Amino acid sequence: MTAVQRWFGDAFVTLHPRLQELHSRGGRLRGEVEITIGKGLAGWIGGRVARAIGLPIERTRDTFEVEIRHVDDALSWTRRFGHGVEMQSLFVPVGTWPGGYWYEKTHGLQMWMSVDTPDGAWQWKPLRAHLRGVRLPLCLLPESRAGKRIAGDEYVFWVEFVVPLIGEVLSYRGTLSIV
After folding, report:
1. Rounded Cα distance, 21 and 176, in Å
2. pLDDT value at position 68?
3. pTM for the full predicted model
4. Residue 140 has pLDDT above 80, yes or no
5. Contacts of 115 (CB under 8 A, 6+ apart)
6. CB atoms inside a 10 Å sphere around CB 58
């Protein structure tokens, strides 16, 4: 049994069957990613967020691969962009669904997030964050919206960072095929 299956318990079956399969065995996904950064002040903030998480912003579209592996009591994601940049995250479950959460470490950013499962999808809901070990009040961070769902036979994901009154500062999203 994987960390995801243990964390969700009986609610694991509320995920789309393809997400259940991916989070039972792991897997590799391939496709394209679209990276968008805001303009002006939004772009300045977006560039800083991108550097904090290790996201390359030199290209707006790129080939993209995600490898999902189950390690010990955690979930490992390795994201590879076509021009060689690699972004790694380790997701560690704490407690169980629905009251539990996941701790993610990506580059210098650590996030604590709960999960909602509307219509079999997986949506992250930020609870708190640290940047290079310093706790940041969520009100000072761009709001993050992230998730994954299955559409047809494809895996659709999105990660957006939005600042009130300024708008979207950074996003990356794509549609991937399970390899």
Report:
1. 15
2. 96
3. 0.87
4. no
5. 97, 101, 102, 122, 123, 124, 125
6. 10
pLDDT at 15: 97
Angle subtended at Cα 79 by Cα 54 and Cα 156, rounded to the nearest 5 degrees = 115
Question: What are the Cα distances from residue 33, in Å, to 1, 19, 30, 54, 175?
Answer: 31, 19, 9, 15, 7
CA atoms within 13 A on the CB side of 49: 26
Are the CB atoms for 114 and 101 separated by under 8 Å?
Answer: yes
Closest of 79, 69, 94 to residue 146, by C-alpha: 79
pLDDT tens digits, one per residue of 151-168: 999 999 999 988 888 889
Distances (CA, A) of 5 to 107, 146, 155: 26, 20, 19
